[in-house]
Design goal:
Two copies of one chain form a homodimer. With 178 residues, chain A is an all-alpha fold. Chain A contains ten helices and no strands. Chain A has helices spanning 2-7, 14-21, 25-31, 35-39, 43-56, 63-81, 83-95, 97-120, 125-148, 154-171. The interface between A and B is medium-sized, with 29 and 29 residues.
Chain lengths: 178, 178
């Protein structure tokens, strides 16, 4: 990650990364499928943490609040323990279409895992999928905003995004004139 | 598309497609970046149609209802004029991780264009992004369901999905006990 930030993502080769990490190119490819994977290396751990947090969530919460609570707690750990990494990763993703594509795929994988866990918790498959999708949108919006403006704190940034999301759905939900 | 359905997506090569279409491999690559693009070939037209439908939407509609209305009208055209293509395309995407990845990217591009158009229509950037994202989730859910069960009709399938989405957001929105 430090290399990407120093030189820009497009300028760094796999050979550069391997050299910095003291690896041969061959052992690099034992660890990562390609250069893009380096940016997403903590993500399997993040997904596991989200599922752990969900297992600990108040059983009385509906699927959306449970999903947001789990993502918020995992995000608070991530932003508190790795603030520079999280911010640098966000800047990198914003800077590269290739990384935005990979980020979409990775987010979709975490969203599917979260939907499956919400269904195990008792939500219908459709409610679980919708709740996971909305929670993921709220979360990624909050991470991007936190990276620009960390002062509010990550949890409050998520809550504001969730309120805004609910307002978008509720504002339209007026009885139609006959 | 017919070739993919006859033989399965993984079994068809670019040479097969070019031969069936009476093209050389070289002129195939003048038309499409790769094999995956063939499956998504009508999508630029679809996006243009969604934006046209949005321009025609009732100015009194909030961003979410306007986005859903535009996607519904474009989807009604697609499912009425190309029912077999739409169903076959859905089956293909469901059958291939490579196509699911491309579909995610294409959907993200249409969602961004829709968000930009909603912002031009007066929504805040955040409300526009949230409304476009939720509308896209509702729409893709409805297309998948319509492909399995067309009897209800596409418009009604979208409306049911939108009601379910609103229920997921509303169900959680109870005042918390003090």
């Amino acid at each position: 990650m430090a290399l990407f930030i120093e030189r820009g993502y497009d300028e760094v080769t796999v050979a550069d990364i391997a050299e910095r990490a003291g690896l041969t190119k061959r052992s690099f490819f034992n660890h990562y499928a390609d250069k893009r994977e380096v940016v997403f290396c903590g993500l399997d751990g993040f997904q596991a943490m989200v599922l752990d947090m969900l297992a600990d969530a108040d059983p009385g919460l509906g699927p959306l609040d449970a999903a947001v609570a789990a993502l918020t707690r995992a995000g608070e750990v991530m932003t508190a323990d790795y603030p520079e990494f999280t911010r640098a990763r966000q800047d990198l993703i914003d800077s590269s279409p290739e990384l935005r594509e990979r980020d979409l795929m990775k987010t979709a994988a975490v969203t599917s895992a979260l939907a499956a866990a919400l269904a195990d918790r008792g939500a219908s498959p459709r409610a679980a999928a919708f709740a996971a999708q909305v929670a993921a949108t709220v979360f990624t919006t909050a991470v991007a905003e936190w990276a620009r403006q960390p002062e509010l704190g990550f949890g409050a940034t998520v809550q504001q995004a969730l309120r805004d999301m609910r307002a978008v759905l509720a504002a339209d939900h007026q009885p139609q004139p006959a």
